[in-house]
Specification:
It is a single chain. By secondary structure, this protein is an alpha/beta fold. The chain has two domains: about 220 residues, 3-Layer(aba) Sandwich (Rossmann fold), CATH 3.40.50; about 60 residues, 2-Layer Sandwich (Alpha-Beta Plaits), CATH 3.30.70. About 30% of the residues lie in helices and about 30% in strands. The protein is built from twelve helices and 14 strands. The strands form three sheets. The chain has a six-stranded mixed β-sheet with strand order 6-7-8-3-9-10, sandwiched between helices. Helix 4 packs across helix 5 and helix 8 packs parallel to helix 11. The longest helix has 16 residues. Bound molecules: adenosine-5'-triphosphate (ATP). This is Copper ABC transporter, ATP-binding protein NosF. Keywords: ATP-binding, Cell membrane, Membrane, Nucleotide-binding, Transport. One of its GO terms (molecular function) is ATP binding. InterPro entries: AAA+_ATPase, ABC_transporter-like_ATP-bd, ABC_transporter-like_CS, ABC_Transporter_VariousFunc, P-loop_NTPase. It holds the Pfam family ABC_tran.
């Protein structure tokens, strides 16, 4: 893959699935650019179009509209074969053959990918499956299958990794190790795109993300940029002698309010534009300590929904196909 400022880009991309008299508009007018060497996340409800976007990037399906490029090459075009070899992919539902062992599975994928078979055993070690390498996959737990899926995605030292819900089934330690591995890969220049429904695991780890809903990108940027856009309030935890805390009442900047108060501790809610004014007020209040808490990515997601920037889907319709 060529060194390119944008590892991948979508311009006005639409994808329509047709069949049995039904049309599903899975993606609609998607513009997206992921800089090389970054960790980028796709977030969205069930059926938002995340897996469809991955399949378009791999050339497994063709867009109905617009242009998809990876490493500067048009997907499916003349230069794409070479680029494709540099993409590692973990699908949402990876099919594994139960009778094959872990290392046999890896050799199978290595042959498919044209990767060197000597990579297989070290990659299994890297994902913590070294001891289980010769056991049939039949006996693997869900998390072990997911690790095997990750290992096969790493074959051939990909420059771009596409990981569709990679942490499904992983325990908390495995999730931590998985993201540590992604950090190491990113440090070596690999571009990584993950989809996930687990917002808490993304918020401290990704460089940027796109929020998809009903086939459209409704917001994209760093977690901090989305925080600022969502206008969710900050929370400030304060502690000090009760008199110092009580003395704040009636002299807080406009819009700042007590959420909870209990003797030596209190929690304040503060609109972002008032943050510095509040800190100035608190600095002279004789407090012992304060902690400013940013809204979580989950708060941001629901805040954008409340602000009308992301559509709110009723639980039943969230899984329904979007009719064109
Ligand atoms: N092969 C297909 N034929 C018809 N419709 C499809 C096909 N693949 C996906 N769709 C539809 O396209 C829409 C987007 O699906 P997609 O799998 O891309 O969503 P997703 O965001 O990955 O969802 P999830 O979080 O549930 O995995 C959905 O309405 C889905 O039903």
């Amino acid at each position: 893959m060529n060194a390119h400022a944008e590892a991948l880009a979508l311009h006005g991309v639409g994808k329509c699935y047709r069949g049995r008299g039904q049309t599903v508009q899975a993606l609609d007018g998607v513009d997206l650019a992921v800089p090389a060497g970054t960790l980028f996340a796709l977030v969205g409800h069930n059926g938002a179009g995340k897996s469809t976007l991955f399949k378009l990037l791999l050339g497994l399906i063709e867009p109905s509209a617009g242009r998809v490029t990876v490493g500067g090459a048009d997907v499916g075009g003349r230069g794409f074969r070479a680029v494709r070899r540099g993409i590692g992919y973990l699908p949402e539902n990876l099919v594994l053959w139960d009778n094959l062992s872990g290392v046999e599975t890896m050799r199978f994928f290595a042959r498919l990918k044209g990767a060197d078979a000597t990579e297989c055993a070290p990659l299994l070690d890297r994902v913590g499956l070294g001891a289980a390498a010769s056991r049939p996959v039949r006996g693997y737990s869900k998390g072990m299958r997911q690790r095997l899926g990750f290992a096969q995605a790493l074959l051939g030292e990909p420059r771009l990794l596409l990981l569709d819900e990679p942490t499904t089934g992983l325990d908390p330690l495995a999730v931590r190790e998985f993201y540590a591995e992604l950090d190491a890969l990113r440090a070596r220049g690999t571009t990584i795109v993950v989809s996930s429904h687990i917002l808490a695991e993304l918020q401290e780890r990704v460089d940027a993300l796109a929020l998809l809903a009903q086939g459209r990108v409704h917001a994209q940027g760093s977690v901090q940029a989305l925080r600022e856009r969502s206008a969710q309030p900050l929370r400030v935890q304060i502690s000090g002698v009760p008199a110092a805390i009580a003395g704040l009442a009636g002299s807080l900047p406009a819009g700042v309010r007590f959420v909870a108060r209990d003797g030596e501790h209190a929690l304040l809610e503060c609109p972002r534009p008032q943050k510095m004014a509040l800190l100035a007020r608190l600095a002279g209040a004789g407090l012992d300590d304060l902690v400013v808490r940013e809204p979580s990515l989950e708060d941001v997601y629901f805040g954008l929904q409340q602000g009308g920037e992301l559509p709110v889907l009723a639980p039943a319709t969230a899984r329904q196909e979007v009719q064109a």
